[in-house]
């Protein structure tokens, strides 16, 4: 029996594209994300145990694309419920500050917050 995950994950209602940092070719989309890693949804299975150079292209308030580069190691890869797609779990080697900021912003954006009630 597989132990339950203790890492808090945040599901994204839409997907952010992940690129290979070396080739700039799309690898897939983020399915969920945490400070420790992410799940990638792709059209090809990923090589388990391999380290990948990844890049996110995040649109900024200034209208410019901000590049977030990081390394992640594939922990597992399996076929998705959607035919022709694969889910792969990645552990970040070291999370750069831009990645940490992005996760915090996504967590804040997608969290339910208590709104003050009017009497």
UniProtKB/TrEMBL annotation:
Record-annotated PilZ domain positions: 5-96
InterPro entries: PilZ_domain (IPR009875)
Protein name as catalogued: PilZ domain-containing protein
Organism: Pseudomonas fluvialis
């Amino acid at each position: 029996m597989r132990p339950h995950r203790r890492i808090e994950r945040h599901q994204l209602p839409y997907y952010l594209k992940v690129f290979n940092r070396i080739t700039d070719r799309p690898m897939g989309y983020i399915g969920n994300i945490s400070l420790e890693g992410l799940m990638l949804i792709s059209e090809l299975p990923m090589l388990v145990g391999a380290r990948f150079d990844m890049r996110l292209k995040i649109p900024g308030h200034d209208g410019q694309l901000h590049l977030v580069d990081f390394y992640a190691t594939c922990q597992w890869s399996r076929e998705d419920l959607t035919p022709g797609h694969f889910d792969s779990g990645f552990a970040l080697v070291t999370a750069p500050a831009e990645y940490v900021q992005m996760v915090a912003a996504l967590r804040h954006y997608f969290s339910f917050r208590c709104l003050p009630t009017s009497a």
